[in-house]
Amino acid sequence: MTRRRSSKVTDEELIARFQKGDVQAFDTLVRRYKDQLLNYVFRFVGNRSDAEDIVQETFLRVYKNKHYYKEIAKFSTWVYTIAGNLAKTELRRRKRRKIFSVSNFVNEEKDYDIPDTEKNPEREVDGTIKDDI
Hints:
By secondary structure, this protein is mostly helical. The chain has six helices and no strands.
């Protein structure tokens, strides 16, 4: 068991290889973290589809910004920070959308005429006379 653990490539080694152009290293990182990140993000957003989108965006950002990773912190800290920030952004977007949609209805002060469906012969006669004039 000790041998297996020591032969396992660390996340930091994988990201270093990926920074040098090894796309297989990136694939390994994705396989290693996708399920963990999905659970983490799901706890924020409560929707599996949104969580999957956020995890996908997380890995896209890792891919695009691989050169920004420095070994100051662990790779896991970096990737979880990206995912958490994206999840929080999604929650803020939802809140704005909810406030905006409710405020559209609250501030609307229009009077609506409800048509009278009851037949009234006097009204019909008055209407006909007015139309003739």
